[in-house]
Amino acid sequence: MTIYLLLIKVIYFSKGYTSKNYWWGVKATYSNAQTKSAVSSLEDAAFDVGAIAAATFWLPAIAGVTGITGVYCGALAKKMKSKNKGKGVILNMTWALAYTVKSR
To answer: Residue 83 forms beta bridges with which residues?
Structure first.
């Protein structure tokens, strides 16, 4: 559930990007500035969730979920950053949270 909440913040509350819902998930198109903003939000989320995972290491269930969430957010941020060639990216994300990122 944590991953969903973070991704809702990044995908649905980023300003100005366009998206379209499909049966398989969401296709979101970001400009260069929007991509940079989303990457920053994801990197911040990865750090924050990683800190929570470290603080709750003695509760394996919580630490595991938060650790996976932090890694997922960090990986998505890295992929979006690497694919952004100055024109933004297109993010295709399924309801199962599998994703592809393409340059625009």
So the answer is: none
Burial of 1 (0-12, 13-18, 19+ CB in 10 A): exposed
pLDDT along the chain (104 residues), means of 10: 60 69 92 91 86 85 84 93 96 93 96
CA-wise closest residue to 45 among 16, 94, 18, 11: 11
β pairing state of 18-21 and 25-30: antiparallel
What is the reported pTM?
Answer: 0.82
Could you give the 3-state DSSP secondary structure of residue 93?
strand
- Rounded CA gap, 89 and 31, in Å? 7
Q: Closest Cα partner for 45 from 96, 92, 97, 9? A: 9
